[in-house]
Amino acid sequence: GIEFMARERNPIQVIYLSERICGICSFSHVVAFLRAVEDAADYPVTPRGQYIRTLVLELERLHSHILWAGVACYSIGFDSAFHLGMVLREKVMDVLEALSGNRVNYGVATVGGVRWDITPEVSRAVKEMVKYYKAEFGAFYDVVTADPIAKARMRNVGVLTEDEAVRYNAVGPTARASGVRCDIRETSPYEAYADFNVKAIVPQDYYGKAYGVFDRFLVRVLEVHQSLNIIEHVMEGLPEGEIVHEKNLNKVLAALKKAEGTGWSVIEAPRGDDTHVVHLKAGEENVNWWKVRAPTYANAVSWPLMFRDNELADAPLIINSIDPCISCMER
Q: For residues 198 and 176, what is the distance between their CA atoms, to the nearest angstrom?
């Protein structure tokens, strides 16, 4: 009902609806929605606002991937690794709380930029977090990959070949773990990503082709390190200037009310391509219509292929391997 509710709200009010499509990747939905609105209205975003949006997107990717890795271990009964993953995840949650005041649904972005700037305290917290993960996250990977039972449960389980991933429209880490070089941050960079030369991470660049659950684990682990590098570059290159194009929301709404047209946006959320389409009608304050396609829509249809030739006991792990978000998918 969220898309229907948006028709009775203006774009500023819909921000808070979009943020509640998903708890884990809430900011991804906000940025995708805002970019669609900004596309429809040809509304500018400040460079500093773009960099801060990129920072929060990568912080969200960190906490999503670390959470997923812990839950994947939990689904095979590896509770000690699950606990370690949850302990590690707390550091990025602390940074998000320092930046926005919230651990979930951060309320950071708005039309034309962001609402909160990077303070010296937040800057220190981000740098400490990067240092912490570079020192500690490797231990989590070592614990999982050194365990013979974990390897036996994940290797060559839930295989999705490269051709099948393309044919069934898999996206995000699920597609990349099948060897498909697809990452919106590389192919169609948005916000500040064009400055960072992001490359899609695929298993064949590291050890060869297998394309099972273990590969989905490896891709996300490597993307944690990639996100840490992007965050470092964001903090080093953060431009000066305003964080938002226009602070007066009445002026923002007046500008959006004059807009006529359809805006489209697709971003690389932690789970894959997150697509938002928004139509604005001149003279109307409320959103005319809004359509969202979350990445689980695309990835879930590959489950029957992944189940082939596997044990029933593998089903929870295979289902979890795409990092499904039913709240994203079932609005």
A: 14
